[in-house]
Amino acid sequence: MTTSQGRFPGQGRSRFPEVWGRVPPRHKNFTGRTEQLNELRAGLLNQVTAVVPTPEPVVPRTLHGYGGVGKTLMAVEYAHRFREEYDLVWWVMADQPGLVRSSLAHLAPHLELPGPAVTGVEEAANGVLEALRKGDPYSRWLLVFDNADEPEELNDVIPQGPGHVLITTRNHRWGGVAETVPVNVFAEHESVEFLKKRIPRGISGDEATELAEALGHLPLALEQAGALQSETGMSVGEYLGLLSERTGPLLREGKPPEYPQPMTAAWQLSVAKLQENLPEAMELLRCCAFFGPEPIPRDLFFPVDEGKVRPEMAQLMSDPIRLSKAIGQLGRYALVRLDNSNRTVQVHRLIQALVREELDEQTQEEIRLEVWTLLSAAAPKNFTDPASQARYLELLSHMRPARVAESAIPQVREFGLDMLDFLYTSGNYETASEHAQRFIEKWSADSGNEDPHILRAQAKYANRLRDLGRFTEAQDINRAILPSMTRVLGANHSDTLSVLSGRGADYRARGDFWKAREHDEEVLRQYEGAFGPNDPATLRALNNLALDHALTSDFGGSQARHERSYMLFKRVGPTGGSPVLLSYWNALAQAVRLSGDYTEACDLGEDALAYGRDQLGVEDPRTLRTQVDLAIARRLSGEVEEALDLGQDAHSRYLRLHGIHHPSTLAAAMCLANLWRMTGELDGALELAEDTDLRYAQAYGHDHPYKHGCTSNVALLYRLLGDPERARSMNESALIALEARLGRNHHYTLAAATNLAGDLAALGDTDNAARLGQGTLRRYRELVGEEHPSSLACASNLVLDLRAEKKSTAAKELSDHTYDAFVRALGREHPFTGACEENHRLVADFDPPLL
Fold first, then answer.
1. Is the separation of the CB atoms in 227 and 198 below 8 Å?
2. Is the fold of 19-182 the same as that of 390-582?
3. Which end of the chain, C or N, has fewer beta carbons within 10 A?
4. 19-182 is classed CATH 1.10.10.10
């Protein structure tokens, strides 16, 4: 791959740029636009800078005009006409803003950067934008964003740097952020030139002028007229006669201005001829008009339940030869765009609107039902394999345009619920919550609040709200729907039990860990009675109970339950691309870490993270959660540099994925603050920890155990930075609050007590430090055993306080026992063992787990 160092225009370039990505083929009949293309070229040339970037941002050029004037064709022509001047040309479909970053990410390998499969979409896209900004390896680049809508949706993905940006849009608001090149209808000579190219059998100049005038010089209308006459051999006179017959009724109908009358008339003539020659092709076009304007996979048109498909479409789809002929005919009449490489059909949104408006309300409903049937029939039941996920992504773009949320048909609503499950499986929590909310609103209006599909949608919505950190809203929904689900579906129905299980998650989110454990024990008994001990749903309940045991300091009980749920799910559940398997795997690694076996926790965490990255992707929320937990295990095992790399990467990804306030981001931030403390970056650690402490109060509430644990972390940093008095005050407050919420014999409480003893010792109050340390050590040993690293750290600190109090005999006995136990538990080379040997005080970190 070579690096271009020159300015535009280039000299001696190859026929095509070295990178030529996703650019549509050149329209063989493209005509005119010379003045506008030259204006566009001159404007872009004035933006060219050297490879070294300047402070001035790139000013994109925008091709603006209403539907049908040829904005996209002009952008395609520009890319082809001036391709020798570029080293890189990349085309981005911008009508779905959520997919723009993905398109940019796939440019990464062409810039010698890791692709999205390696680093994730966000990081790959950001790497592309940075490479384009620097002009390395290419300074002469062109990016085209086709069919953009709102400027705000693309502001952060418009690249800066020495290259060119071209945008096509119908939205006039782009005029405020880009230099606009208006694209209007053809001039008369351009229309004449186009028609002469488009109608190869011949058309005179006068005929072309008359026809163009009748069609208002609108390029899409001219294309339709040329296609019809080329296909049928109809004379211009015949066409104009038919056109004049249509204009009166059309004008009387008062079509909206975005559907120009010449386009409507031209379209109707093409439709009339199509109806005459191949009527089933027209039925196919009508069906396509109720999908979205995005590409429609051709294999969606296959035989399904005829009761929900119009007879003419059922007959067409059952005959693959005739179906192919119909699709080809639509392409020849310029009514659809065919992509034979990807096997898709695409209809211009203007044509779709015109088709729909010609139909009476009953026919519209029949076709909409047909589209719902095709979409739901095409949806796989598996959400984890790549082919199924690719299919769901194709269907997702048609959900809103097809108005799937409006259906009351059970199988269509099942499809909607399956889409929510897919979005969860793929980690798209925000999109899932938006669709769930829309389903609930529409279905409730049609079917009342106790329809089973509505109740299930509400349950899924509550789960996604919890995933987004909106715990109170999730709790309110679960509390409200549980009586209805019990009444409508029955107490032992899987969906009812799922909502009941969600109440346990609500208790955890409130910090009521013991109540959650008691609740989940009962839920597990109900699952075992209804489905047996090894059913996947029962294993989810078992996994939840295992989380409760960890949160209530029963690490051994937690590990045993996590191991059972993980091993049994591997036997009975899907193993490829399963977020559930990854969650169980990581939960087991976390339980092993809490039990004090840091090496084994690292081994399990490494395997789980490799699975997550390979099967779910590096930016899947479940993968990132595993990465944070592995960073904690690495830190505790003494591998601080490796942990720091993992922690920084996870935190930056979470920031991009969820923003700064999300509980997952906060957990990653506290992990990073602890790591910075370990590497001596105390000021940065304090700033991050204090900010995170405040945000934990906002996320969980001011009296949540997590908030008090974070306060103890902040206090620790104040002590290390030379302010033990402030640290003591904060740790005393945290300890009182934790005792009130969790009791004196909880590991969070004991960790705060361990740190408070350190504060007292730093203030010279070694008597009280020793007293507090002795009580804390006794409780630690009763709770987790004598040789748990937390017990040993407390004991090692107590040795220092006993020595300060001149209790040498007790200190020597405890010191020898503690050092030998550290060697047995962690090894002679572990930093904690070394700290004990060298008489350094150890600390108790708080690492808030995700709920």
1. yes
2. no
3. N
4. no
- C-alpha span between 639 and 826 (Å, rounded): 13
Q: pLDDT tens-digit profile of 1-35?
A: 333 334 444 444 446 788 888 887 777 677 777 77
Asked if 350 and 357 touch (Cβ cutoff 8 Å), the reply is: no
Distance between CA 577 and CA 611 in Å, rounded? 8
Q: HSE-up of 555 (CA within 13 Å, CB side)?
A: 20
Inter-CA distances, 191 with 73, 171, 188, 198, 354, Å = 15, 25, 5, 10, 23
Q: Per residue in 409-439, pLDDT tens?
A: 999 999 999 999 999 988 889 889 999 999 9
Burial classification of residue 276, based on how many CB atoms lie within 10 Å of its CB (0-12 exposed, 13-18 middle, 19 or more buried) = exposed
Domain positions in the chain: 19-182, 278-378, 390-582, 600-702, 706-851
Q: What CATH number is given for 390-582 in this structure?
A: 1.25.40.10
Tell me if residue 447 falls in helix, strand or coil.
Answer: helix
Are 63 and 119 contacting, i.e. CB atoms less than 8 angstroms apart? no
Q: Model-level pTM?
A: 0.78
DSSP category for residue 158 = S
- 10 Å CB burial of residue 326 (0-12, 13-18, 19+) is buried
What is the distance between the alpha carbons of residues 144 and 100, in angstroms, rounded to a whole number? Answer: 11
- C-alpha dihedral (796, 800, 806, 809), degrees to nearest 10: 20
Strand partners, 166: 61, 144
| Other Cβ atoms within 10 Å of 659 Cβ, number | 11
Tell me which CATH code domain 278-378 carries: 1.10.10
As a whole number, mean pLDDT of residues 463-490 equals 95
pLDDT digits (tens, 9 = 90+) for 650-708: 999 999 888 899 999 999 999 999 999 999 999 999 999 999 999 999 999 999 999 99
Where does 600-702 sit in CATH, by number?
1.25.40.10
